[in-house]
Write a structure and sequence with these properties.
Strands 2-3-1-4 form a four-stranded antiparallel sheet, with helices on one face. With 91 residues, the protein is α+β, with helices and mostly antiparallel strands. It contains two helices and four strands. 37% of the residues lie in helices and 34% in strands. The radius of gyration is 13 Å and the shape is elongated. The chain starts with a strand and ends with a strand.
Length: 91
């Protein structure tokens, strides 16, 4: 099992509704393209930041690491937000 936690800085949104319009597609894309569980974990009431969590289950540790690292690379290519930090744990 692997868990990736990513802290995002969102420069554009001023309201929680605008934040949701940025975060929801990120979570949906991760679920669709990487077959991971995805959720917003923290900073729920702050329109300028988000903490997202992604989990991947596999019987191969290497596969889990590859999936989550590719997901992180994909997240880094957006102009809608900046990645302030991340934490990757493979159990």
């Amino acid at each position: 099992m692997g868990v990736l936690q990513v802290r995002l800085r969102l420069p554009g949104p001023r309201t929680l509704k605008e934040k949701r319009s940025v975060v929801a597609p990120v979570l949906a894309r991760a679920r669709r393209e990487f077959n991971v569980s995805a959720a917003e974990l923290d900073s729920l009431d702050d329109p300028k930041s988000a903490v997202l969590g992604f989990a991947c289950l596999s019987n191969a540790r290497r596969h889990t690491d590859e999936v989550l690292m590719k997901l992180l690379d994909t997240l880094q290519g957006s102009r809608d937000y900046y990645i302030e930090g991340h934490n990757l744990s493979i159990l």
